[in-house]
Amino acid sequence: MALRNQVFIWIGLLLALVLSLWVFRGILLPFVVGAALAYLLNPLVNQLQKWRFNRAWATVVVLFSVLTVVISLFFMFVPLIGQQIVGLIQRLPGYVGDLQALAAAWSPEINAWLGPERAAQLQTSLNDLTRQALGFIATLPAELVNIGLTGAAVVGFTVLAPVVAFYLLLDWEGMVRGIDDLLPKQHKGEVKGVLREIDKSMAGVIRGQGSVLLLDAAFYATAMSLIGLNYGLAVGLIAGLFSFVPFVGFALGLGLSVGIALVQYAPNWWMIVLVAGVYFFWQFIEGNVLYPKLVGSSININPVWMMFALLGLGAIFGFVGLLLAVPMAAIASVLVRYGVRKYKESSLYLGVRRRAPGDDAAS
């Protein structure tokens, strides 16, 4: 009965948390980003404390340094990036028309290669994809407004998120002690073990995968710009920043880059192959070098579960849900693995009844 009550209590707390997130989803963005920033910077603050800084000064130094770097990069690159992204959005319908013209010019060769029936199916698929892409481009400004990326929201976010991060960093040790005091004494060791697994998984998500995402964006943007691809900086950044969704960043960047390269370089096939080769080369580096070194096995989330979490939480909570999806999926993965372990240790799985202390004496 006691176990059943505990299960009901935890389920009730989980439902209350989800309901609170849904009710306050419109104001959560700066708090979510501030909490992620605090979690990311806490090891640096701890290191400064080891060097005889007090907690307040360590927090000020770390946060001020990071904000200085971010603001400097913002003023250096954002005008150019914004110009390229706006130009790319305006030019995309033209690129689509140019690709359709190329397809029409190559239609005899395509018909001879695939056959009339398959060529017609390919043309239909390309037309459907074109309509979807143009529809997405047409609704993009409205979607940005819907997720709150208006001028007032951006100003509020840039002011409030660092303030949230500052106060969380300042009281981080107190919050950890408070959580530790609230843990049930009988199961404190076991619960702390689960929390350590969650912390390891969250570190892999926010620190490890965040580092991979930034490296992806930097490499793709630099490589496409050096090749001379039109809007290469914007396309590379889009590919890198969408790489937190499994395979989506790679597929989106590859599709955009090869499509632009076909219009820009055809019939120079070597340049088109070079553009595609950059993506396949970096995908190999990411999978075999970056992820094992920076992320390792700490996340251990199935890509299908990751995409489900992104779509589900995005549909419920909007843009905030997209930010919460990956860390929430990491936490859920840890809890599911813990539940499976406990199930396999239980009499329900083993098929035996645990012996009570007086059973031996009675027999």
Poorly predicted runs are 147-152
Protein structure class: mainly alpha
Distance between the termini: 27 Å
Whole-number tally of structural domains:
2
What is the H/E order? HHHHHHHHHHHHHHH
Task: Provide the descriptors you would attach to this structure in a database record.
single chain, 363 residues, mainly alpha, 2 domains, 0% strand, globular
Give a quick rundown of the structure.
The chain is an all-alpha fold and 363 residues long.
Overview of this structure, please?
The chain is mainly alpha-helical. The protein has helices at 2-23, 29-50, 55-105, 107-114, 116-146, 151-170, 172-182, 188-227, 232-241, 248-265, 269-295, 303-317, 319-345, 347-350, 359-362. Helix 3 packs across helix 10 (248-265), helix 8 runs antiparallel to helix 9 (232-241) and helix 8 packs across helix 13.
List the helices and strands and how they pair.
Layout lengths: L1 H22 L5 H22 L4 H51 L1 H8 L1 H31 L4 H20 L1 H11 L5 H40 L4 H10 L6 H18 L3 H27 L7 H15 L1 H27 L1 H4 L8 H4 L1
Helix pairs in contact: 2-3, 2-6, 3-6, 3-9, 3-10, 4-5, 8-9, 8-11, 8-13, 9-10, 10-11, 12-13
Membrane topology: Multi-pass membrane protein
Pfam families: AI-2E_transport
GO biological process, one term: transmembrane transport
